[in-house]
Write a structure and sequence with these properties.
It contains 7 helices and 21 strands. Helix content is 21%, strand content 29%. It binds NADP nicotinamide-adenine-dinucleotide phosphate.
Length: 332
C-alpha cells in the first residue's frame, strides 16, 4: 500500500494499492493495468476511502519556448508545476497566464477541469494537448476545439471511462502585455508588467484562500451555479445584495456559490475536523486530522442548507473517488 497523503491537497491519510511516478512517455507504453487513477498534485480530489487500484503520478517535466509571429508557443510537461511555469514565463515577459498565479497543481491537471481565476481560463490559452490513451496504447494530440473546454470541464473530464494521461501541454501566449483586468480587485490595478500583475494576483489569493501547504483544501469545493432569469428575479426580490454575473448565454446568470453558502449561515462552520473557510465559504478545509467522511458530511450539509435557503442545488467541483474509482456526488 502507498500513502497518498502527499498526493491529495486535503492531506487525507488514505492509501493506494500501488503508485507509479511517470517521468516519460516511453514509461506509459509499459503500463498495462485494469484500474488506474492519474494524479498531478491531487489538488482537486477527495478520496472517500483507500484506493484499490494504481495511482499514476504525472511527473513529465521540461519546458520549450519558441516564437510564433507575435506569440510564444510554450510546450511543457504535464508534471510541470503550474505556478513555477508562470513564474518562469513572467520573468521572460511572456504574458497571458498571470491571472492563474498561485493556483496549486500541475500543468497537466489544469486543463482537465479547465481551471480559471479572475476572468482567465486555461482552455483559452491552449494550443494543443498531447495525451496517452492507456487503454489503446496510443499517443494522441488534440487542438483546443477537440478539448471541448467549458466551465470547469473538458473532454478529459467528461470521458471518465478512458484513462487519458496528459503528457504535454502547448500554450499560445503573448509577447505584448494585454492583461485581463475585468475582475474586482484587479480592475483597479494598472500593472505595467506580467510580473506586477502576477504579484498582485498572488496577494489577492493569499488574503482570501487558504494555502494547501498550511491548511488542507482543494480550492473551490462547489461550482458557481447558473440560473434562469425567472429564478434570478425570484432571488433578487428577496436579496437586494445578490451578486450576479452575466454568462455567454442570454437568459442565464451566474451566482457566486461562496456568497450563497455564507448567506445560508455556513461560512466558518466546523464538523469534526473539517470546516468551511472563514474568508471564503466556498472552500472546505481540513482543520487538522480530518477523515474523509467528515468532509463528505460537511459538504452534504452545506448543500442542503443552500438548497433549503435558495432552492439551488450546488454541484461539487472537486472530483470524488472511492475504492473503485470516480463516483458522482449522488452515489455517495
Ligand atoms: P471573488 O472575487 O470573491 O468572486 C466571487 C465569485 O464571483 C467568483 O466565484 C467569480 O466567479 C464571480 N465573479 C467575481 N467577479 C466577477 C466578474 N467580474 N465577472 C464574472 N464573475 C465574477 O472570488 P474569490 O474566491 O476571491 O476567487 C477569485 C478567483 O479565483 C475567481 O475567479 C475564482 O473562480 C478563482 N478560484 C478558483 C478556484 C478553483 O479551485 N477553481 C479556487 C479559488 C478561486 P468565477 O469563479 O466564475 O470566476
Amino acid at each position: 500500500m502507498h500513502d497518498l497523503s502527499s498526493y491529495n491537497s486535503f492531506g487525507l491519510h488514505v492509501s493506494a494499492q500501488d503508485l507509479i511516478v511517470v517521468q516519460s512517455e516511453a514509461q506509459l507504453d509499459e503500463i498495462d493495468l485494469e484500474q488506474v487513477l492519474i494524479l498531478g498534485k491531487g489538488s482537486d480530489v477527495l478520496f472517500t476511502d483507500d484506493y484499490d487500484g494504481t495511482v499514476l503520478i504525472d511527473e513529465i517535466k521540461g519546458v520549450q519556448i519558441e516564437r510564433d509571429g507575435p506569440d510564444y508557443l510554450v510546450r511543457a510537461g504535464g508534471g510541470v508545476v503550474l505556478d513555477e511555469l508562470i513564474a518562469e514565463l513572467v520573468s521572460r515577459n511572456i504574458s497571458g497566464m498571470e491571472n492563474l498565479s498561485a493556483i496549486p497543481g500541475t500543468l497537466g491537471a489544469a486543463p482537465v477541469q479547465n481551471i480559471g481565476a479572475y476572468g482567465v481560463e486555461i482552455g483559452d490559452l491552449i494550443e494543443e494537448i498531447e495525451f496517452y490513451d492507456l487503454e489503446r496504447h496510443v499517443l494522441q494530440t488534440f487542438d483546443r476545439e477537440q478539448c471541448a473546454f467549458a466551465y470547469r470541464s473538458s473532454y478529459f473530464k467528461e470521458h471518465k471511462s478512458d484513462p487519458l494521461f496528459i503528457s504535454r501541454v502547448t500554450l499560445r501566449l503573448n509577447s505584448v502585455f494585454d492583461p485581463d483586468l475585468s475582475y474586482k480587485g484587479v480592475r483597479e490595478l494598472d500593472p505595467k508588467s506580467p510580473y506586477e500583475l502576477r504579484t498582485r494576483i498572488a496577494q489577492l489569493r493569499r488574503q482570501k484562500l487558504p494555502d494547501p501547504q498550511e491548511v488542507g483544501n482543494a480550492g473551490s469545493f462547489f461550482k458557481n451555479p447558473v440560473v434562469t432569469e425567472d429564478k434570478l428575479k425570484e432571488l433578487q426580490a428577496r436579496y437586494s445584495d445578490l451578486p450576479v454575473y452575466r454568462t455567454a448565454q442570454p437568459g442565464l446568470y451566474k451566482l457566486a456559490a461562496g456568497w450563497l453558502i455564507d448567506k445560508a449561515g455556513c461560512r466558518g462552520i466546523t464538523h469534526g475536523h473539517a470546516g468551511t473557510w472563514e474568508h471564503q465559504a466556498l472552500v472546505i478545509v481540513n482543520r487538522g486530522g480530518a477523515r474523509p467522511h467528515e468532509i463528505v458530511a460537511l459538504a452534504q450539509y452545506v448543500r442542503s442548507e443552500v438548497a433549503n435557503a435558495f432552492g439551488i442545488l450546488l454541484e461539487p467541483e472537486v472530483r470524488v473517488y472511492n475504492r473503485q474509482g470516480e463516483i458522482s456526488w449522488e452515489q455517495l
